[in-house]
Amino acid sequence: MKPNITPEKPILLIDDEEHFLLSAELTFSSNGIKNTETCKDSRNVLSLLSKKDYSLVVLDINMPNISGSELLPQIVKKYPHIPVIVLTAVNSVENAVQSMKDGAFDYVVKPVDDTRLIATIKRGLEFTEIRNENELLKQSLLKEKLEHPEAFESIITRSGALRAIFRYIEAIAKTNLPVLITGETGTGKELIANAIHLVSGRKGNLVPVNVAGVDDNLFSDTLFGHKKGAFTGAEIDRKGLIEQAEDGTLFLDEIGDLNIESQVKLLRLLQGGQYYPLGSDIAKLSNARIIVATNRDIKSMQGSNKFRQDLYYRLRSHHIHIPPLRERKKDIPYLIDYFLIKASQDLNKKKPRPPKELYTLLSNYHFPGNVRELEGIIYDAVSFHKSGILSLELIRSKLSDEPFAKQKVEKNGNDIEDSTILITGRFPSLKESEEELINEALKRADGNQTIAADLLGISRRALNNRLQRKKN
């Protein structure tokens, strides 16, 4: 998980040695931890904590007036949500054990190298972030009303599943951890990424990039930029998209198509928040939040070594799966009306009157292309529309282009057909099956025989004949 290297709330660094405070503050800053406050008089610690909320406390033990050993249990008791890291020159097992018993998050002995110190600080910040996030998630699940409804205005839905996703987004948007968005093509993954960015309140931009088919060199150059002379044609320095997403969000779409070499570089960026522009030996720091999306099953791709397991588990710190349109049919009538208005405005036409059969017809379609496919169908119909009621013929012909097929499930990189027929008990006869199919088609078509006949793949007359035989 990527730590929040510039925590929203400051870190309080307590030590009576002024030169150590300066040195530690400089080390923090050079590693991207810039929100730090120092205190060299232990008598002021509790007063500072009462006036401001801190993300982390780093506490020395041996100090004049009030020792760290005396302060530690008081801080833990009054502010249990703040991790306290004891950083001391006292290399004593007894002191370490007592500090941990008193509630210290960690016990670090001076002198400590910068790498270990920064790793400990980041771990403490991650702990604070996850605990805050869990609290926000609990609160969001208990409430129905959204705090930022404006962030979701571009997503047309009445689905309870999507409303639950909105509440989850409000709970996790302000953290710095990566987000993995999955869902079939056309379900609106970029809209969800945009909503996360809006709710996060980040000052920077949302920078989207599609990484499908991008080779490793192009990926590195696009994301990290290059120095002048890094390769033939690199005549000037060029900033990468990660720099353009500073203080904002980098959205990597089609992450399931990213090659293995580029996956390693993305993993390094997520682990340390550092990257190297091409041709440079000097690392740069990034505080951009990473959101990725895919319509592929990247979990199963690990088995065929097409997706790194360590990257997968880092990316899924927060995982949002968008259900396909066929699993939220309540949205279809609202989406039809929305796209009718939008297409009419874009094409400078009067909005056509939709026939009532349109909603029934489309509600019985499985939409492999999801919302994007529905939008295309409506735009196409409005394009050909002249006046009066919208014709169903063109829409019906579009739907018939899609053959009925068994669901395909990807497993270990191979497509495997999955049966859509579930039979329990006695195997039905052909006559019984026909009767059940007709009843189901009429039910789905709300009794409309024309649409029911379309679903059955027969003419209305043929359906009517079967119904007459049934009556006789």
Name its key features.
alpha/beta; single chain; five-stranded parallel beta sheet; about 475 residues; elongated
Tell me what you see in this structure.
This protein has 19 helices and 16 strands. The longest helix is centred in the N-terminal third of the chain and has 29 residues, at about 115-140. Helix content is about 45%, strand content about 15%. The termini are far apart. The model is unreliable at about 410-420 (pLDDT under 50). Strand 15 and strand 16 form a beta hairpin. Helix 5 (about 115-140) runs antiparallel to helix 6, helix 17 crosses helix 18 (about 450-455) and helix 18 crosses helix 19 (about 460-470). The protein has about 475 residues and is α/β, with parallel strands linked by helices. The strands form five sheets. A five-stranded parallel sheet has the order 2-1-3-4-5, with helices on both faces. Strands 7-10-13-6-14 form a five-stranded parallel sheet. The radius of gyration is 30 Å and the shape is elongated.
